[in-house]
Design a protein that fits this description.
- The complex is a heterodimer of chains A (151) and B (127).
- With 151 residues, chain A is α+β, with helices and mostly antiparallel strands.
- In chain A, strands 1, 2, 3, 4, 5, 6 and 7 form a seven-stranded antiparallel β-sheet that branches.
- In chain A, a hairpin with a 2-residue loop joins strand 6 and strand 7.
- In chain A, helix 2 crosses helix 3.
- The longest helix of chain A is centred in the middle third of the chain and has 23 residues.
- Chain A is globular and about 45 Å long.
- The N and C termini of chain A lie close together (7 Å).
- The relative contact order of chain A is 0.29.
- Chain B contains five helices and five strands.
- The longest helix of chain B has 13 residues.
- In chain B, helix 4 links the parallel strand 4 and strand 5.
- Chain B is of the alpha/beta class and 127 residues long.
- Classes of the chains: A alpha+beta (151), B alpha/beta (127).
Amino acid sequence: MNETAVSVSLREAVDEVLETMFFIESEALAGDRPAEEVVASSVEFEGSPSGTLRLRITLEAARGMAADFLGEEASDLPAARTAEVISELANMICGATLSRVESETTFRLSAPVTTLETGSLTLTAAGAAACHLGIPGGALSVSFPCHGAGS
Amino acid sequence: MAYRLLIVDDSPAMRALVRRVIGLSGFDLAACFEASNGQEALDLLSREWVDAILTDINMPGMDGEEFLRRLASDDVFRSVPVIVISTDATQHRKERLRVLGARGYLSKPFLPETLRAELEMTLGVSG
């Protein structure tokens, strides 16, 4: 599967997860953003392909999504609960992407690692598909390695 | 009839979501237990009877596949219907889990109504 096909699969997977589990829609984000507080999550996966999905989401958007997901008030939500939901977001996007690019073998996901960071939202890496999206309250960036996908 | 359910998932957020979705859907729930992996679930099942189990697959400690094997090898627990909730939507994974004893399969992401429908179908509840 080439980089374009992986990019399409990644975008489809992100939209499916956002719309189905969080009831939100996204739009393509043009241009970079200044350094800001972001929640960063990564999920390693083993199978064919193997690699790491990386996700970054602006803090306020993360809080809003976590509150809606859990049915709680954003102002009352501890940072750890926000991190749990963003971990699950990364886990679902990774699985949904792999289910699109992988059809012959079973894959295994590691537990997501999620931290609060200050830096650029935008994820870019050589040989990786990426999408940068505007969502209610902020923005989201996801990258997925193309190397070996579907081969 | 009110049902007793067990949710097995290492993600506290997903356990909370599943519990909330089932509650909001109006499903007749008598009790809802939670465990973070297969071993915790087996420990809980030694003390509490449940009508159905919803389990993840990728979990630290005892994962979902081993949990299904352990349930299938137990004279009492093998009769408890299990629905797998997993990010892996590939057909060969679904078939493998059915062979291990899963009665239902729900791919994440899922719509709330799909979860209720799968639960009712597995339990033989008429809408």
